[in-house]
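Support request, please re-run this one:
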Amino acid sequence: MSKNNMLALIITVVVLTAVAMFGTQFAGSFNMPEAEAAAATPTPLPVTTSAQTQPAASGLPRTITVVGQGSISAAPDIAAVVLGVNVSAATVEQAMEDASNRMDKIMAALKKLNISDKDITTSNYSIYYEEPPRYEMPAVSKGTEGTGETPAGVYRVSNMVTVKIRKLDQVGELIDAAVTAGANSLWGVNFDLEDRTELEAKARAKAVENARLRAEELAKLAGVKVGGVVQISEVIGTGGGYYPMPSAVRAAAAEMGGGAGPISPGELEISYQIQVTFELQ
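Re-run finished. Output below.
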C-alpha cells in the first residue's frame, strides 16, 4: 500500500471515530431526566424596580374629647327624719315591752300631725345583751369580806323609724312631738326632692353646653374648628350628685316650730358630668 493510501485510511478512521463520539453525546442530552434538565436550566434573575408602595392613610377623623360640668340648685320639698327609742331592762321581755309602749305613743303623736302610714318605715329593730363592765375588784382585808355580787348585764332594744315629712314647716314640730311622746334617739334629718326628673334634665343640658364651650376654647388655641358630635356619654360615679347647700335666706327657727332648734333645709345642688367627643374641621 502506498503512503498516500495509508494516510487516507487514517484520516477516514479518525473522522468516523469523531462522528460516533458526537452522536453518542447528542443522544444522551436528548434523553436527560426532567429533574436533571430542570437543574441544568438557569434560573431567571428577579426583576427589581425603584418604585416603593406607600402605606395607605388610616382615614381616622381628627377628634377632641372633653368633659362638661352642669349643676343646678333647687330648694328641697321633702324631709326625712330617723327617730325612735333605745331602752334597756333586766330581761329581754321587759325591754321589748318598754320599747313597744314608747313606740305606740310616738306613732300616735305622728298621726296627730297627719303623717300618713306610707310615709313611716321601720329602718332598724335590734335586740342585744350588754354585759356589765369587767374590772378587777380591789383587795379586801381579812375580816372585811362583803357579800356583794357581780352586777348583771342588761338587754337593749332599739326601734327606729324613718318618717317622710312633706311639709317642711313641720320638721321642728314633729321632732318635738316625738321626743315628748318618748323618742330618745334621733339619727338625723335629710332634705330631698320628691321628683328630680326635670332638674336632672336641666343639669345634663348644662353639662353638654359646657362641653362644647370647652372644646371650642381648646380648638381655638390649636387653630381648628369644632364640628359635630362623634360620641357622648355620662360620666358614671361623679355625676348626678345631690349636695346640701347652706342658705342664709331660709325660715328662722320660730317658723320651723317648737324647741327643736333652728332647722334649715337649705338648697340641693344637682350636678352631672358629660363626656363628649367632637370632630375637628
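Residues 83 and 186 are 4 Å apart (CA to CA). The first strand starts at residue 63 and ends at 74.
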